[in-house]
Amino acid sequence: MRKSIATVSLSGSLSEKLTAAAAAGFEGVEIFENDLIASPLTPEEVRARAADLGLAVDLYQPFRDFEAVPDALLERNLRRAESKFEVMARLGADTMLVCSSVSPDAIDDDGLAAEQLNLLAGRAERHGVRIAYEALAWGRHISTYDHAWRVVEAADHPALGTCLDSFHILSRASDPRGIEDIPGEKIFFLQLADAPLMAMDVLQWSRHYRCFPGQGGLDVAGLLAHAVRAGYRGPLSLEVFNDVFRQADAGRTALDAMRSLLALEESAGLAALPEPVVPSGFAFAELTAADSEPLISLLGSLGFARTGRHRGKPVELWEQGEARVLINTAGSDRRSGPSLAAVGLESADPAASVRRAETLLAPVVPRRRGEGEAPLDAVAGPDGTELFFCRTGSPGHPSWTDDFAPAGAAGTPGAPDDGGGTGLGTIDHVALPQPWHHFDEAALFYRSVLGLKPDESQDLADPYGLFRSLAVAGSGGTPLRIALNVAPSPEGEATRSQHIALATDDIVDTARRLRDRGTPVLPIPANYYDDLGARYELPAEQLARLREFGILYDRDGDGEFFHFYTVTVGRVFFEVVQRTGGYDGYGARNATVRLAAQHAAQLGAV
Amino acid sequence: MRKSIATVSLSGSLSEKLTAAAAAGFEGVEIFENDLIASPLTPEEVRARAADLGLAVDLYQPFRDFEAVPDALLERNLRRAESKFEVMARLGADTMLVCSSVSPDAIDDDGLAAEQLNLLAGRAERHGVRIAYEALAWGRHISTYDHAWRVVEAADHPALGTCLDSFHILSRASDPRGIEDIPGEKIFFLQLADAPLMAMDVLQWSRHYRCFPGQGGLDVAGLLAHAVRAGYRGPLSLEVFNDVFRQADAGRTALDAMRSLLALEESAGLAALPEPVVPSGFAFAELTAADSEPLISLLGSLGFARTGRHRGKPVELWEQGEARVLINTAGSDRRSGPSLAAVGLESADPAASVRRAETLLAPVVPRRRGEGEAPLDAVAGPDGTELFFCRTGSPGHPSWTDDFAPAGAAGTPGAPDDGGGTGLGTIDHVALPQPWHHFDEAALFYRSVLGLKPDESQDLADPYGLFRSLAVAGSGGTPLRIALNVAPSPEGEATRSQHIALATDDIVDTARRLRDRGTPVLPIPANYYDDLGARYELPAEQLARLREFGILYDRDGDGEFFHFYTVTVGRVFFEVVQRTGGYDGYGARNATVRLAAQHAAQLGAV
After folding, report:
1. Would residue B273 count as lying in a domain?
2. Is B456 marked as binding a ligand?
3. Model ipTM?
4. Three-state secondary-structure class, residue B461
5. Count: domains in chain A
6. 229-248 in A: which are within 8 Å (CB) of B?
């Protein structure tokens, strides 16, 4: 379906907004009145600019507090409308959004509202304009979509229809099935917005917390399906008031918005995208470092062995069981230290993974493949992390591992047989800090592009502010897991850390082996264990082992979680985890202790 | 009364929190359990650190989900409590906060709750500990303070009392008068927090938006007065969960917290501070500039004349009517350009103004008075702006103007008689951008230190995010007015602007004179006037004049407001305003247009 966006959804001047909307592939815009009023461009110039960019002006909005007023006020309101019709003619807009009145002057009289809307529609018609009447969730007398429709029906004018807005309908928990009772041709416009589920005043919720469909908790796809079944064939138009999007780069927000609509059409069964290929695990994690020594030392102590050297690039492969880490020494910034730059995701069909990602506007990473190397299909995540789609060691298919020549010799550090492993055989999850303005984008990206399921968002109390964390995961017994984090403020971005969690089946045994190998482990305060003893009835012997090795503990109804951390090198640290039973979380309740311990370690306080 | 603060109210490690609380003059702290658990300090070390700093550990908190449970769970809960009593002995804390249960295991049975709390109090007593039982506003069965008190009364144990928390009581709109029915000695603890009035889920409201008393909309002083009338003589203790304070510098937050308690005691009639001397107007605004030429050119075009030169410093006095501007060329940073560094406030008693400011912990600015100069009493505002208390030209009192030697000669630019004024005779208001983490602090500062009244907070839509704005004002016909603004994010601080608004009685006349003098005025888009015509029934002639001179318009039930702006020089611009009738605002609805026009002007787009 045709795709539009309201200019209020994007940051910047009206000019910037139009440019961003066009670049993201939108075909139309809703011009938000304040954006026009504050613009140095005349309506004619806006129209020309939009036309140059291939954008139609699908809606002018909003016109407020029109209907059900005493006669004297009606005359004024009609004059006001005439003036806006003239602006719309100059803009080339043929549909005007009229919101249900919030004015104390409005009279609770549907007949009067219908009569006056009929009058307005008559005036509009003379200007070639249609009126789309919408119920605001906080409208004074008319606040539900079915009520607005009854008034429109009673007004009975060809130039009058209704506008449906998913936020106004779903925020009030109205039943959207009634949409199918409205003749499709009388639904003049459809505005779409999602929002996180919040128990707060609906006006504040609407003005500050709306987000793009798929980023919140409202069933926008279900609502869309009802509208289409009713016969609606107009634009899908995003109208999102969001404090963060107002600050973010308009170009990126517009792409995020378009991705949201593409995924929404798929969810509503209106369009078929290439099927998602849910990654089944991590092929590798790639660290970049100008100086790889600290990483090599840490990886070696964790029991990894250097097993390969890339044939064409300064990249080493380190392995332990199924856990693979690449160390890339090309082009990294020495000052920032080692960082996690890429992850390899196991895909049953890497080419199909990329097709879906491209369709959903993920930036494809230019291929840097040397002659004879295996194909490497990658896209960039919202934080710049490269996501490679891999099919590792599958007979009959090229594998990225073929590009590595065997390395390491018996008896040398990092050789596979230098004393055995430490029980760390797979990557349990990786944690990727996200840019402050793009957390909602990241959640939608991982959900739509990779087909991962988001968990509930959590607040993690760092000593210097609350982090937000959202985990996304695949399905099955050992799903692929990624934890997305965002710092309390843009200032905090420099200090955010990435990590790679490695799984063991016996965390005490692994911890003991790591101690023997000199792995630098993050010290955990004794107070934590005193509390753990009070909180859970753990056997004394087990509690003593946890305390001895700095292991953190969590449990829920499904199972237990044990975990500890290495110190941080550059921007990266490692976690060691053991899951028992069906425990599916990440030990969020221990995050405060971990974050405080990391701050203390950074200051050299412990 | 004795003053305490919960460690959760401050940012940083437990060590930093204790240091900040002590430096601000607190006598006690509540130790928040997670702060202790995450600390590398043992309880004994915390106790010693606190003692060294002169802080008592007044409360250990919280203990959760204890009461009204089945027997098997009771045993576990008692074991958990015993373990915490041991921690408290090590900490030197003698009061434990027990919150009403939120657990699904809790039984709705007041008798059982009382019985089990009695049991807990008995155990506590053996450890020399008292239990303060508090109703959480979202408690499962017990959520009001009077209900909690009935259970405590029924439990009837000397080591059991109640804890009152102003947020939990006032957020539910409970009637606090019932507090006086509780015997004072059974109120074991009083926690104080304010919050902005928000219609949202009370748990989220409590966890993210609490603020210090006087910074929100709850009547904390009234509640405190009831508690004191009941006979409460324990500590006044702040417990504030606030997303911004978590990120802010702990030292500053602690001072803000102490200021809040001092002002609260005054509001509740419990302490007499030096009376506020509400400033009656602006003595001057002081701009600093390494290169004063752009400012001189702008001031001259606005009709100001150079009338004085400071006898001992590189400072010029520029005047027009009662509006005075100082230009200081000492020690300014050339790169940032001119900025507003100080304002002079007319005070009937400058020494008394300073006494009050000092009592309320405002940093007194070191006096830089030369020999024979008038006394200059100044404190620093939260954004670093210096606030001078002045008594200008009052017979029998020294006046800061005496330190200036007359300057300017007939016929030279900037001379008083170069062609007459422009009608700008007073400073209407100044706008001071505030640091991101200190907006609530600023509101309380201007209210408590200067006795100004805050208006309602407003959101102003800049093209790149929402600003928050709060005006504070004195009383009377032409009150002193200051507009406080805060950028959408810390990133935005570099671009925030300060301004000085000058009043005229005839804005069109002033605008015409300024045009003749070549004052660079901010251009306003034509679209604004098209909308103004539609919105208000302004006479065509008047609308044409507004359009001609780029004058913005607002009105409310009390009167009208006309205003326009100069371009920005460095960080500063000027506004010209005319108020008619009793209009008391600042044209907030025009802020979007002004902010967009300023962005456009910055880019050279207009």
Report:
1. no
2. no
3. 0.92
4. strand
5. 2
6. 243, 246-247
